[in-house]
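Retro notes
What went well: the complex prediction finally ran end to end.
Inputs used:
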Amino acid sequence: MQIPQPSLTRRGFLVAGAAGAAAVAVPGVARATAAVRAVGDPFTLGVASGDPTADGVVLWTRLAVDPLAPDGRGGMPSRAVDVQWQVATDARMANVVRSGTASARPSAGHSVHVVLAGLEAGRAYFYRFRVGGHVSPTGRTRTAPARGALVPFTMAVASCAQYEHGWFTAYRRLAEDQPDVVLHLGDYIYEYEKNDYVVDGGNVRDHAGPETMTLAGYRQRHAQYKADPDLQAAHLVAPWVVVWNDHEVDNNWADEVPEDDQTKEAFLARRRAAFQAYYENMPLRRSSLPRGIDMQIYRRLQWGHLATFHMMDTRQYRSDQACGDGIQVGCDDRLDPSRSLPGRQQERWLLDGLAASDATWDVIGQQVFFARQDYVVGDTDAYNMDGWDGYAASRNRILRGIEQRGVGNPVVLTGDVHSHWANDVKAHWDDPSSRTLGVELVATSITSGGDGSDVPSYGPAVLQENPHVKFASNRRGYVRTRVGAGELRADFRSLARVSQPGAPVYTQASFLIEAGNPGLQRVAPAL
Ligand code: FE
């Protein structure tokens, strides 16, 4: 779509704002608004929308005149600021159908979450915000189709955007593909201090601030990412459905266990700060508001009759990684049936939801590698303890559940591993002739790992050793899908480089999945 120029939209907002004058600001808020006007543009972090339903969506922005302020406050005053918002049916914001005022409070990092309801199903809407004389860019969003509707749609899948490892060109290219919805599977930010995680050839830019530990630190880090124009472009184009992975908190954290030797008390305080900042910076519904040390982000969304999105959290409830984490040979603990990756409650939630879903496609949006992946050729087996291989019994419960409930078309979506993969999901991984129950599409990173190459991670041997793997590539990019009633098409979109801005995107491989006939069929790459 054409992203409207601010100059086109500003005048309309001011006219509508003057005519509407919906809310009268309290005196303190009026003073805060005046202070913001004097300091500068409060929309440096862009706008976003998310979690669409058939009658609504969440609109988001967070005010910051100085995104990198070390105290995490974005240069904002320690008072609430009134933010006016508008929703229209056209990109020029001529036909405004909803408007109101939200309060951006310091306790929420000056973020606002406007939860819309009562909109028409299955259509695009446009939205923007205003503070004083400043008008935000205009975002496009959409509601999900009505229950029962079989309207084909495009969905982009992204993950893993280490800011230092490259330019966010892949987000820009994703926006240019104009998806109807974006699923982000985590590692939206990384927690490291600069020079802690350096890619071959050197990082192209640096994180501000120390390794994130505090609310101020996480707020500052989210703001640094959100200030990126390519990321902002991707939010402008469609609603996002987000779930975190590990780096939104700490590398490979598991429930209450940190990566390193923090005390439990210190880690829980850190986790709490990370969750709070995550909520503040994402277009999430109030059901995901942090509560104590917890925050529920596993949730289900419906896309007409075509798709149910089962969005999972594979970090907050998991058993600790077996055998000390990493890639391990001969670790029996990974088979222990008392261990779970999503936690027993979320396992049941997933299986109940799969049983209840009457949509054509059951999209399971999660983080870590689902298919078995033996890293060593020959009789020795080596598995990654952080992925589902490290929780084999937990995965088996899900596979048996899919079989028993006759789930027709499960599509597992994965991030985390910084490479593209296309996998058949097998009833029994050691028996290539066993039933194919569904597919797994693994979206590579936006930047993490740097430029990469066409050679799959761990070499071509992995393809021989794991015959259910149909494609792997170590390029940066994202996955674009076209979801229809009869088939789902997946395009693995890749960029030759992220070390310099502006790389074009190309489709490296395409697959078809026929509804009712699980498994990947390779087809000629789409443009
Ligand atoms: Fe990552």
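What we learned: DSSP finds nine helices and 24 strands in the chain.
What to try next: split runs per interface for comparison.
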